[in-house]
Amino acid sequence: MSRPTSKVTRYAGTAAALLLLLAMPYYLDAFWLQVGAFVMAAIIGAIGLTVLVGSAGQLSLAHAFFLAVGAYGYAFLAGEPGAGSAGTTLSGPGLPTTVAALLAVALAGAAGLAFSPVAGRLHGLYLGVASLGLVFLGQHVLFNARPVTGGFNGRPIPELSVLGFELTGDEPDLVLLGVPFGARERLWYMALLCAVAAYVVAGRIVRGRPGRALRLMRQNPIAAASMGVPLRRYRAGAFVFSAMYAGVAGILIALTARRVVPDHFGLVLSVEYLAMVVIGGLGSVRGAAVGAAFITGTPLVLSHYGDAIGVFARPGEDGIDAATAVRLLYGAAIVAFVIGSAQKGRPHAITITMDRARRALPGVSRRRLQRQGR
Amino acid sequence: MKTGPGVTAKTIRLGAMSDLSGAVFGPLGRTQVQGNQLYIDKINKAGGICGRRLELVVKDHGYDVQKATVAFSELEPQVLGITHLLGSPITAALEPEITTKKLLTVPSSFASSLLKSEYLAVLGTTYDIDMINGLAHLVSKGKLAKGDTVSHIYFEGEYGTNALKGSTWAAGRLGLTLRGVQIKATDADLTAQVTRLKSDGAKAILLSASARQTASVAGVTRSIGLDVPIVTQTPGFDPALLDTPVRAALEKNLTVLTSYAPYGADAPGPKEVAALFKAKHPNEPPNALVDYGYVSAQVIGEALKQACTDKDLTREGLGTAYRKLKSLDTGGLMAPMDFTVRGAPASTQTFISRVDGSAEGGLVAETGLYRAQITPEYKVG
């Protein structure tokens, strides 16, 4: 009887958490709403990466590139031609913003598909290094394709709107229950909706048939192939899926930051995303969400309270100032988080997840064989 | 007295957004914030402005646009103006919001492309005009003559592009041939570029990059026996270079163009700042960015005094007051500045300095404030 009960409590918990998140714009100020939007964007991106790296076992350092494709794709497709900053001239087809957003996600997916022939031939670290090339290629293009990307200073992001109602802007005025719903409140709901959808879809894929096939492919490609898993298609599929998630995340990041600049989409961002899925436990969708919230949120929140803690030197004075302390604290927190989650044996701990996956796989193949009557 | 955000009966809050933790501009941002604080301390000691103490709220963005947007939405409601905003992509990202919030801001940049923004207070002389003055100075000294080839190594991005615009214009006017070489901020070894420009027969090297590249260029020119003048700009020199083996080459050939006076220069302003800095940070190596940080806060301070006279301490009031500042005297820290003309640089004179390892801050004045004869004909924009 314990199983159904725990299931009920879990659903109740999820529902309560969702209600809480829905009510947040009534209580939080601009700073927290913005942090929240960035965190939810990162969650989507990290979920995409954990399916690729954790489930399909394809190490990718190209995530920043796919994020950039989404962000810049949207900026360009929805952008109007005109003068950019620092003397650049921007071009842009000025498509309706929803169309532009969908096309940008498709574009990111296409970029993933275009890279999949490479992904089909390489494994492990070799694939990681090859995917690294995309980041540098992307940086070069972002800096130099000025009419499209705006160059060094990037380009502004048009607000996303449906039939004249801005989903991420201030127009038209909207007041619900006495609270004005401006750009940041709307953005919060936008991001929340996307994050929940991304979470549910990825969870179903990972737990369902495709997820099992991906895991088997990672563990033993020959066994997978002999059981009728089309390896090339699944490898390509994982890359496309991950790239499209990155595309959505990129658009949300762009909408929150209101401007995209090339510097943001460098190697460090790729490594941060890898860190998110690693500290969350490879292959775990929930773990990726936790990792993303931790990696993205912690520095922002710590620096928010850095001044208030008061033990540090004021910025610019002698001694350790808050900005430096935040960096140290952040590093220490990552170490503590990884050690803590590994020892407590939480489901998203790295080692535990990998062990579980290893144990689960023969079972999956056994059950599948049974089902097929062999 | 009308008041706006950041102003109470006793205090006026100002903001600074800098890179204090990032690897790119960490030390430079810190020095400028220290300069801001020196000015604010001095004003507070004298009783503040409008009977109110000044307070500086500092936020770190680590040279990251995402962090900067979050920090800005946190900082903006608390302050009346911003004395220091570091980073060209960050300034570009925040510019629309600065304009809608009417928040008078001093960007840590001398790019003339920022001049068209109503609420960005670009101090002193812009990068392009510095280059014009520098190139004309070389010609007047007889180090360059008509028909010579000059090489300009520049960063991709606002700073480099802006400087190249100036040097291209000046080369055209002075009858020189200019070869532009674009590099990235991460390119630390410029052997290939310098060897190439030697074979091109370059008679001088203009360098719009950072101190790392200056070290590389000076080192390579010496080792391949290329003895030509090297001219760099504000971000291209750091006194820390003098502790490296390229010191001799720098002392021999490097000229530095800045919009502010060298640290401890012989004028009342720099002398005062040097004394204040020594008293407050006795163990830190000084450099001229302290002067710049000080002036940044001073311009906002002067605008505040004007706004106080106008009885309008709102953001609009501060913006209007700043546009009334004419021939603003900084005691020789920067050239006298005029902010009354929208879209025009505040000054067109450049400090031309050479390197001297024995001087504190590493620079000594070669000329006082210098403006070339051709400079007034140049159109910014």
Describe the overall structure.
The complex is a heterodimer of chains A (374) and B (381). Chain A is mainly alpha-helical and 374 residues long. Chain A has one domain (18-371). Chain A has helices at residues 2-23, 30-55, 63-78, 97-121, 124-144, 146-149, 183-207, 209-219, 221-226, 231-257, 267-280, 285-309, 322-344, 350-371, and strands spanning 82-83, 89-90, 155-156, 161-162, 165-166, 175-176, 179-180, 259-260. In chain A, strands 1-2 form a two-stranded antiparallel ribbon. In chain A, strands 3-8 form a two-stranded antiparallel ribbon. In chain A, a hairpin with a 2-residue loop joins strand 6 and strand 7. The radius of gyration of chain A is 22 Å and the shape is globular. The two termini of chain A are 33 Å apart. Chain B folds into 2 domains: 2-126 and 266-347, Response regulator (Rossmann fold); 127-258 and 351-377, 3-Layer(aba) Sandwich (Rossmann fold), CATH 3.40.50.2300. In chain B, the strands form 3 sheets. Chain B has a 7-stranded mixed beta sheet, sandwiched between helices. Chain B has a 4-stranded parallel beta sheet with strand order 3-2-4-5, with helices on both faces. Chain B contains 11 helices and 13 strands. Chain B has 381 residues and is α/β, with parallel strands linked by helices. Chain B is 38% helix and 19% strand. In chain B, helix 7 (211-223) links the parallel strand 8 (202-208) and strand 9. At the A-B interface, helix 2, helix 10, helix 12 and helix 13 of A face helix 1, strand 3, helix 2, helix 3 and helix 5 of B.
Task: Describe, in short, the structure shown.
With 374 residues, chain A is mainly alpha-helical.
CATH fold naming of the largest domain in chain B: Rossmann fold
Strand content of chain A: under 5%
- Find the biggest chain interface: A-B, 42 and 44 residues
Q: What is the rounded distance between the termini of chain A?
A: 33 Å
Radius of gyration of chain B: 20 Å
- Helix count of chain B, per DSSP? 11
Query: How many strand segments of chain A?
Result: 8
CATH superfamily of the largest domain in chain B: Response regulator
Distance between the termini of chain B: 38 Å
Percentage of helical residues of chain A? over 70%
Oligomer: heterodimer
Give the overall silhouette of chain B.
Answer: globular
Largest sheet entry of chain A = 2 strands, antiparallel
Q: What is the level 1 CATH name of the largest domain in chain B?
A: Alpha Beta
